From TrEMBL, chain A:
Entry keywords, A to Z: Membrane, Transmembrane, Transmembrane helix, Transport
Chief site of localization: membrane
Protein name: Predicted ABC-type molybdate/tungstate transporter, permease component
One Pfam entry name: BPD_transp_1
Matches recorded under CDD domains: TM_PBP2
Listed transmembrane segments: 36-54, 66-85, 97-123, 144-165, 204-225
UniProtKB/TrEMBL annotation, chain B:
UniProt domain PBP: residue ranges: 26-256
Name the UniProt record assigns to this protein: Predicted ABC-type molybdate/tungstate transporter, periplasmic substrate binding protein
Alphabetical UniProt keywords: Signal
InterPro entries: ABC-Tungstate_binding, PBP_domain
Top-level taxon of origin: Bacteria
The species this protein was found in: Desulforapulum autotrophicum (strain ATCC 43914 / DSM 3382 / VKM B-1955 / HRM2)
Presence of the UniProt keyword Signal in the record: yes
Signal peptide: 1-24
Gene3D superfamilies per the UniProt record, alphabetical: Periplasmic binding protein-like II
Record bears the keyword Signal: yes
Length: 228, 278
């Protein structure tokens, strides 16, 4: 019980005193998760839109594949990315192993199906009368799509937040691809794994609280956006 | 509506700000990537030594702490530039296979068998061989790292010496698959025996404020010596590995300054490693 309370106290201490190792991990986490979320949005949003907006042959099997990808274990992605970017791997020349860039690649693979599936679901769940109304008002194809996108902006925002939460909290990819290198690729989650491994539970709990605080701040700022 | 759009823009701007340093950080000068064992990292030795190395040589060193087995694999695949490991037999095989070039002995400590202070199997003061035989006969709980690390390799050799196969499938033989400190903590939770290097054990003791539930029970056999070495990769196998920088690291570690620093690295007043570079 003691170490839980000690962890709480320590969490505030770490943040308040600006502990450099903690801030380095916070920074690494924010950098890499923001980067991978943006990349997965760039790829997932258009695809999700196409999947949700248009009807075509083979749509259902495609959705099934996509839904299966939602369950990809992070350690498997880690293993896959590791194999590809290791210097003996096909992408070895990019020198991505043990870098934040490498982690970002893995996390993008993790977030991409989430963004795509959620975007597609949002578009599908759009009010079916909207399109008809727009057509009857004489809107062109471009206008229709633009208006539809504007209407589902909160759904897309939700997809982004979900993806962000997932990549920020994963540990398998960061550990395997990043190597948990202090000052460089040590994220909050790999730091927690390390501290727990060392038996420093209070440190682990403190870092966990830091992570929850960040997640809370992200969600708070988004709900603020939504209200406006 | 207008205000919302503006906020979206601010949001994107914020994201850009966090990403720009990511790309900027990739352009830097001399960097050395090392794979090492959990003991050098867990004990805090590297946190203590490496900033001084960077200061002296202007080489930024990054390390990933894994077991010696995986560290050797990382070197074999050319994913790192230099290794700091502790499994002499495996290291020699590694060099013979054409993966490693120079091997330089840097420091040593010793392995010990630790267990509950009450010592349920009564192994205290016995030789390693006797102790393991007693543990096997009594089916006392024994925790192994089971991760092919240097410690795990040594432990397997010791079991081998008892003349019976590794108790891999026995209920009382638990393989944690984790680093040394994690395994010691698991042994404490289960009140079992385990084998560790002395440096990590002292670190564990210091975390418990000097009164740890687990104690050293078996020590002192010549076979328990634990030699750490720096290994450079063979440029023929890994032309892209930074052989020159790896040699600078190796020289520095074997040099007088680092050797003195290693000697002075203590916890609870006890040295964790003994320098022995020639």
């Amino acid at each position: 019980m003691d170490f839980i309370l000690a962890g709480l106290a320590q969490a505030f201490g770490l943040l308040a005193t600006g502990d450099s190792a903690t801030w380095s991990a916070v920074q690494a986490t924010l950098k890499v998760s923001t980067c991978s979320m943006l990349m997965s949005m760039a790829a997932g949003l258009p695809l999700g839109f196409l999947l949700g907006y248009f009807d075509f042959k083979g749509k259902r099997p495609l959705r099934t594949v996509l839904d299966t990808l939602l369950a990809l274990p992070t350690v498997f992605i880690g293993l896959l990315v590791y194999a590809f970017i290791s210097s003996r791997g096909p992408l070895g020349d990019f020198n991505l192993l043990f870098t934040l860039g490498g982690i970002a690649v893995g996390q993008t693979i993790l977030a991409f199906p989430i963004v795509t599936a959620l975007t597609a679901a949002t578009i599908e769940g759009m009010d079916p009368h909207l399109k008809l109304t727009l057509i009857s008002l004489g809107a062109g194809r471009k206008n229709i799509i633009a208006t539809c996108l504007w209407e589902v902006r909160f759904g897309i925002l939700a997809a982004a937040v979900t993806a962000y939460g997932r990549v920020m909290t994963e540990v398998g990819i960061s550990m395997m691809v990043g190597g948990n290198i202090k000052w460089h690729t040590r994220t909050i989650t790999t730091a927690i794994a390390l501290e727990t491994g060392k038996g420093m539970f209070a440190n682990g709990i403190a870092l966990g609280l830091v992570l929850i605080t960040i997640a809370f701040a992200v969600n708070l700022s988004l709900s603020f956006l939504r209200k406006q | 509506m207008k205000r919302t759009r503006l906020s979206f823009k601010t949001l994107i701007l914020l994201m850009m700000i966090t990403i720009i340093p990511l790309s900027a950080a990739t352009a830097q000068e001399k960097k050395l990537m090392m794979a090492t064992t959990t003991s050098t990292d867990n004990t805090g030795l590297l946190d203590y030594l490496m900033p001084l190395f960077s200061k002296d040589t202007n080489i930024e060193i990054k390390w990933t702490a894994t077991g010696t087995g995986k560290a050797l694999k990382l070197g074999e695949r050319c994913d790192v530039d230099v290794l700091l490991v502790h499994a002499p037999a495996a290291e020699k095989r590694y060099i013979d296979a054409g993966f490693g070039k120079d091997r330089r002995e840097i420091m040593y400590n010793d392995f010990v068998i630790i267990g509950p202070a009450a010592d349920p199997a009564q192994v205290k003061g016995k030789t390693v061989k006797q102790a393991l035989e007693i543990i096997r006969d009594n089916q006392s709980l024994f925790l192994s790292r089971g991760d092919d690390s240097g410690t795990n390799k040594k432990e397997k050799i010791l079991w081998n010496q008892t003349g019976k196969p590794l108790p891999e499938k026995e209920n009382w033989y638990i393989q944690t698959g984790q680093g040394m400190l994690a395994t010691i903590n698991a042994a404490e939770e289960r009140m079992g025996y385990t084998m560790t290097d002395r440096g990590t054990f002292i670190k564990y003791q210091s975390q418990k404020g000097g009164t740890a539930p687990l104690q050293v029970l078996v020590e002192g056999d010549a076979i328990l010596l634990n030699q750490y070495s720096v290994l450079t990769l063979d440029p023929k196998n890994c032309p892209n590995a930074q052989y020159d920088l790896a040699m600078i690291f190796s020289d520095w570690m074997a040099g007088e300054k680092a050797q003195t620093l290693i000697k002075e690295f203590r916890l609870l007043g006890q040295p964790l490693f003994t320098p022995n570079a020639k």
